[in-house]
């Protein structure tokens, strides 16, 4: 589904990604963990074309959706318009069909009664569920999340993690940057631990959490 090979990226002479390679298979969940500043967001931005790597290769099949930490909803659009805008304008799909699908997605996200609300009238958790519905409305083959719960209060974090777990159960292909360690452990087929622009460690969730690598132990220790 996604293959990145030997990706390098520098900003102002500082190497932020130093030869990163990864593969995501269809239906797989890959979580990317690691300290702040290790290059996780830059890697996602390269994967999704928001940033151009200095060198390396990126190949993917189909289309992707992206869910950000800060929701990035259009503040002047209602919920339903946020969800339907790109499928109608970018994908040129039929309006009635897009609306029908959007309403089904909002129902799935528990937001049926909010379709005419504006983002500022919603809780952070509700805004993030709208942003997930918006990403899903494009029928993506792969969904990228960049710290989807970092801007949320702890009590709202659970509702977003539940939505992502449900998508995993439906075999949605996902790449998730997260600081939620028990969630990453439960939901991921593979985990990639980044440190200072390198992939320090990569493996199944069990392998990574059981690893004796001192950097991962030090990192995971901060969450205990
Ligand atoms: P993470 O998501 O793991 O916290 P980032 O990918 O956001 O890390 O950042 C990695 C490094 O790259 C940081 O030192 C950050 O300051 C730098 N960086 C990221 N984006 C830019 C940019 N557009 N211009 C300059 N430096 C950047
Ligand atoms: Mg980041």
From TrEMBL:
Matching InterPro entries: AAA+_ATPase, ABC_ATPase_HisP-typ, ABC_transporter-like_ATP-bd, ABC_transporter-like_CS, MetN_ABC_transporter-like, P-loop_NTPase
GO MF: ABC-type amino acid transporter activity; ATP binding; ATP hydrolysis activity
Coiled-coil annotated residue ranges, if any: none
Membrane topology summary: Peripheral membrane protein
Domain ABC transporter: 2-221
Alphabetized UniProt keyword annotations: ATP-binding, Cell membrane, Membrane, Nucleotide-binding, Transport
Location of the protein in the cell: Cell membrane
Name of one Pfam family that matches: ABC_tran
The keyword Repeat belongs to this UniProt entry's keyword annotation: no
A GO cellular component annotation in the UniProt record: plasma membrane
Top-rank lineage group of the source organism: Bacteria
Transmembrane intervals: none
Keyword Nucleotide-binding tagged: yes
Protein name: Amino acid ABC transporter ATP-binding protein
């Amino acid at each position: 589904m996604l293959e990145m090979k030997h990706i390098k990226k520098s900003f102002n002479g500082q190497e932020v990604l130093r030869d990163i390679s990864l593969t995501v298979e269809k239906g797989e969940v890959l979580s990317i963990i690691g300290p702040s500043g290790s290059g996780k967001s830059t890697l996602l931005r390269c994967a999704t074309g928001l940033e151009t790597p200095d060198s390396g290769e990126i190949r993917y099949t189909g289309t992707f959706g992206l869910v950000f930490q800060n929701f990035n909803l259009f503040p002047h659009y209602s919920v339903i318009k946020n969800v339907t805008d790109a499928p109608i304008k970018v994908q040129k799909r039929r309006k009635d069909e897009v609306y029908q699908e959007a309403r089904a997605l909002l129902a799935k996200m528990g937001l049926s009664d909010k379709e005419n609300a504006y983002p500022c009238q919603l809780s952070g958790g509700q805004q993030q569920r709208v942003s997930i519905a918006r990403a899903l409305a494009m029928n993506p083959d792969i969904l990228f999340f960049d710290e989807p719960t970092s801007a949320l209060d702890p009590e709202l974090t659970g509702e977003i993690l539940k939505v992502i777990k449900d998508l995993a159960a439906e075999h949605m292909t996902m790449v998730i940057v997260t600081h939620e360690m028990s969630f990453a452990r439960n939901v991921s087929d593979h985990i990639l631990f980044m440190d200072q622009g390198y992939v320090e460690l990569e493996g199944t969730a069990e392998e990574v959490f059981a690893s004796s690598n001192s950097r991962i132990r030090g990192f995971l220790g901060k969450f205990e």
